[in-house]
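#dry-run=false #mode=assembly
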Amino acid sequence: MGEAIAFYFIAACILGFAVLVISTKDTVHSVLFLVLDFLFVAALYVLLGAAFLAAIQILVYAGGIVVLYLFVVMLVNLKRPPEAHSDPHRQTRLGFGMAAAVIVELGAVALYSTGKPVVPLASAATAAIPVSGNTEQVGWLLYTSYLIPFEIASMLLLVAMIGAIVLAKREL
Amino acid sequence: MVDTLVIPILKILIVLNATLVAVTYMVLLERKVIAWAQSRLGPMRVGPYGILQPVADAVKLMIKEDITPTRADKWVFTAAPIISMVPALIVYAVIPFGPEVNLFGRRVTLFITDVNVGLLYIVSVASVGVYGIILAGYASNSKFPLLASLRASAQLISYEVAVTLTLVSVILMAGSLSMVSIVRAQESSHLWYAFVQPLAFGIFVIGSLAETNRAPFDMPEAEQELTGGFHTEYSGMRFALFFLAEYANMIVVSSVATTLFLGGWLRPFPSVAMLSVLDVVPSWTWFLIKSFLFLYFFIWIRATLPIANLVVTGIVKVVLL
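#status=ok
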């Protein structure tokens, strides 16, 4: 009961702040609502018992990436009014198109998953893990079942990092 | 009922109040120590040897006029001091002041909670504190605070990397992210991690000076160039919140350093049986003594070293190029 109330409260906050992120005129306010949104997502992880993921969510998204967003927003002059476009309804049409695409996608996922039996993923995964503690379990899974995706992701990050350095520093 | 509700709430109240009192007296201690270092007396008027000076300061800051600049971003301007104060206070939830003790016939743990990801929690909450500084500079709608806040946040973000990497060495030694487990690991290995990882300890100390914007890394508060820093436009209680947050952060980093590198609540030489007479001193006293020495070291550095703007950049250039 209490968990359900907490979940619906957090979910409502996440959706509400997400709407505020795209509806606020001031870009800095929009970034701030994004931070609040990430904090509530972290709260959702805590509710699910994924404390490690919650801490990483705050550290990486709220504490790292959005700070860079804020830097960019503050350094780029956004006080200038937006240029008038010849077709004022272009954004509306684009928005409806995107929304329709998302709804079709969600519907396809729902249709696909209705026929399948429910697999208790979490319990199946934790049954084989010989360590206790949230952090240890995440580490165990990353280095056993998900080793190859993990390594590929780290390679991707390394390539992105080298690319950023090459782009930013003309002469090495 | 008592164990699940009353005791945790009491612990939270005690820790919060003790922290706020410690923060105000930290300010007095700093003024006194710097005064002694410069052959002055420091605050002497309020109370004997000025010990009631923090009370006078608090009253003064509370009754001062609270000004919001007309062109400021009102909501963000109000939120910024709160954003920098709250992370500095909620970090204390996972700091272990001592082990389990008997108190009035009950087993009471001397920490509010011990979560599995304690150290990660501290790092992530501290990283949210950066917003207070950036937003204060932005919302003031004034040139110098904006420049100062960019400077401060650039410094915080860059030193955060170094400090977090030193924490990794401790996590590897202890095999856990929980603050209590890290102290227990130091107890069972009979060594404080400051002696096992001296390099990490050194980098942590230097990095934490920078993280708390303390001298010799107090470029963000350069009076000469930036008319004061990111809180130039703030007055009254809102300015006080920034000020208190800075000192609360100092206490946080010294508590973290004590827990990770100096054995937390353990007495000196915890495995030497000859010194077991030291056990009469309660464990939390050792924690407070070590943290105090660390804080004193911070003040000492400020009284001794000049702003090392050029010195630090010079060293960095020599090392890197």
